[in-house]
TrEMBL record:
Keyword Membrane found: no
Signal peptide span: none
Source species: Chryseobacterium geocarposphaerae
Protein known as: DNA-binding NarL/FixJ family response regulator
Residue(s) carrying 4-aspartylphosphate: 58
Entry GO MF terms: DNA binding
Lineage of producing organism: Bacteria, Pseudomonadati, Bacteroidota, Flavobacteriia, Flavobacteriales
Amino acid sequence: MENLKIKIGIVDDDLLFVQLLENYINSHEGYEVVSTSTGGHHFLNETDTDLPDVLLLDLRMSNGDGLEVMSALSQKSAGTKIIVLSSFYRRSFMGQMLKMGAHAFLPKEIEMEELLRVINAVYHTGHYFSDEQIEVMRSQLSNKLPEFHAFSKDALTEREIDVLKLVCQQLSTKEIADTLFISPKTVETHKTNLMIKTCVKNMAGLVIYAVQNNIVDADEIVLFDK
């Protein structure tokens, strides 16, 4: 049986950048660019039903910026993982990007090989944080980002807290299932319940919730192994 490929979409108004990135990604086994768009409006209009697994998204574009795309996908409850890839990168924007629905936030200057590793990490674990971004989160999360006005950690079940802690260790659904001796389907149910109870939009939001509510320490968050 043919190996499944990670389906990738690219939204960027720099056509040369899109073509170079598309050619590089398609030259590697396990990845396939299934859509390219020159702006946010074009992407939302053309790919309303067949969304990619991972979306590489620029922030500043003339035909619908990245924030519009993230907002629209959030309202659709789409399963697409979003990697914001922007020349307008600032580490201090990390928290805001996560709140908006991004699963990773990267500068365009990133090495192509490293980008593939991030795509793989986001696809399998739901989020990616670099060492520098973790340092920013450690210093800013508790004090500068708004608290989640949702359920307290006491409202989470013991099993949900177990799952949440393992999410923060970047374990995949299967790895969490094996660790807790439950089925992958049950893990996905717990993840869904966690997002409903905490009012977050993705796995990255769950990590922030866990840090802010002292369920895990920021030092315990496992980084993607470079």
